[in-house]
Amino acid sequence: MLFQPLSLLFVPPNSVGMINADDELLKSEKILAHQIKLPAPQLDLEFPLMKALEQRRSIRKWKDTPLSEQEISNLLWAACGITQSGYSKAKSKRTAPSACNSQEIRVYLLMEKGVFLYQEENHELIEILPLDIREHTGTQKMMKTAPLGIVFVADLSRMTGPFLKSKEAKRLSAWVDTGFISQNVYLYCAAANLGSVVLGLVDRDKLHELMQLKEHEKIVLTQVVGHLA
Length: 229
Ligand SMILES: Cc1cc2nc3c(=O)[nH]c(=O)nc-3n(C[C@H](O)[C@H](O)[C@H](O)COP(=O)(O)O)c2cc1C
What we know:
Blueprint: E1 7-11, H1 24-27, E2 31-37, H2 49-55, H3 69-80, E3 82-84, E4 93-94, E5 105-111, E6 114-119, E7 124-129, E8 148-155, H4 167-191, E9 194-199, H5 204-210, E10 217-227
Antiparallel strand pairs: 1-2, 2-7, 3-4, 5-6, 5-8, 6-7, 8-10, 9-10
The protein binds flavin mononucleotide.
């Protein structure tokens, strides 16, 4: 087993500490959640940016080995980790920009032991479902062996900025914001000798249902990551 959950949490309303107030999934439902505290990301890892850009590639073949806890920590921090804490009413800053700093893209991991939500403030994973649904990361045949699936979910309720009034503006911004995060994942993978491909070929309705997402939570893209075969 890759992770040993640190604790079995009962998450009642308003007792989720650093979890965002609009995190309905965790706030409004009394769910049993496994919390996995990730190790600190290795911010002093060195790899030339220009090399990572040169080596970034979509890779569709992986070994059947799980990523280590450290690799997942680094990958998630690179994706959209916090680089500057929020203060007063100002939100935190991330490795990825977002329209009006909405930070609407929630990153879910599909792993052998279940579906987890990345909780950036505490740099931890919250178990959403104890089910292995990795084969639904994408519809292509090779997804049957996807070692780690990432699902980028736009929480439209977070998109309240002045330029995000219309449905179209929300949709466009969610796709762009996902692109930044996905590219961060790609670059980390290039630097860490991992293979990755972002996916639009996804049965979003099926995945939405399996992940028990809400109406205002929309799947934008997914991405697979694994050790190079
Ligand atoms: C929005 C988007 C959706 C994509 N969807 C898929 C997909 O469903 N399946 C796949 O194998 N590759 C997918 N790709 C990867 C592209 O095929 C790939 O980026 C392109 O062929 C260029 O190759 P490179 O990424 O190695 O430069 C997608 C890429 C983007 C940007």
